[in-house]
Amino acid sequence: MAGRGPAPKDPSRRARTNKDPVPLRVVPVAATPQPDLPEFDVEVKVDGELVTQEFEWPVQTRQWWRMLASHPLLPEFTDMDWSYLLDTARLHASFWMGRLDLASELRLREAKYGFTPDDRLRLRISYAEATGAELDTADRVKRVSARDRAQGIRRLEA
Q1: Close Cβ partners of 8 (under 8 Å, ≥ 6 residues apart)
Q2: How far apart are CA 117 and CA 143, in angstroms?
Q3: What whole-number distance in Å separates Cα of residue 39 and Cα of residue 112?
Q4: Which end of the chain has fewer CB atoms < 10 Å from its terminal CB, N or C?
Q5: pTM of this prediction?
Q6: Is 85 exposed, middle or buried (0-12, 13-18, 19+ CB in 10 A)?
Q7: Beta strands in 12-120 (DSSP E)
């Protein structure tokens, strides 16, 4: 199975704290809105003859494309990203139409956009973990001492 090696170790657990050899370069991004899945014709053999017909996107691929609209990195997607993802959508459609040999290529392409938790770890992407309400609840839970939690518990003598 192809991959890019083990996920990077948490920096706080490293023995050495060398800086990254290549500094991060930040460039401004002109985000592009998500395009619709394109309509196009494909050639298929019917009774030994090549016939042109409109390509029908599988339901799973249309759902997959809609899910991309809620991808956390969506505001950073450019025309190049959408072009790559449209090609990936075509592979996704072929996979769902029975071309299971495309599974590894599909997995590699999705990994580049952090589709799984392992992919996000490898890309050093972290989603926001807590909302204000969650933080307030965590503060309240921390304030309760062990003595308070154990109130009312009595030890029975044997």
Answers
A1: 121, 122, 124
A2: 32
A3: 25
A4: C
A5: 0.65
A6: buried
A7: 41-46, 49-54
